Amino acid sequence: QVQLVESGGGLVQAGDSLRLSCAASGHTFRNYAEGWFRQAPGKEREIVAGISWSGTRFYYADSVKGRFTISRDNVSGDNAKDTVYLQMSSLKPEDTAVYFCAVANSADPWDVPVDVDKYHYWGQGTQVTVSS
User: Fold this and answer.
1) CB-based contacts of 79: which residues, under 8 Å, 6+ apart?
2) What SS3 state is found at 104?
3) Less crowded by CB within 10 Å, the N or C end of the chain?
4) Rounded to whole angstroms, how far apart are CA atoms 126 and 12?
5) Would strands 10-13 and 18-25 be described as parallel, antiparallel, or unpaired?
6) Residue 80 pLDDT
7) Residue 105 and residue 73: Cα distance in Å, rounded?
8) Strand 18-25 vs strand 32-39: parallel, antiparallel, or unpaired?
9) In the beta sheet, which residues pair with residue 10?
10) What is the rounded CA–CA span in Å between residue 2 and residue 36?
């Protein structure tokens, strides 16, 4: 059973930084790409950033390039745990949304899926609010 738990959201001012964390457990960490998505009220869920399971390929939405960075830490063994981070800088009011982490099964170690439908497991989301 894959479990994803996000943390780190909050209320900040424009220009501030936040780091979101997503603790993933219950799966082996090969063959899974991971991504951060967001959904603002009245809008569709969109990908913000993604990382391949090899950890060597990345995707960023144009709206966050240069401001957001995705990274991951893997711990193998009996207590295997995978944590994915989203470092957000120079936040803007338009970044306000619920942020979700998700994992996608991927046979290609360099693949970073960008479609919501490619992601099979989702966290519960964390609210990020940026005031002007």
Assistant:
1) none
2) strand
3) N
4) 14
5) unpaired
6) 66
7) 18
8) unpaired
9) 128
10) 16
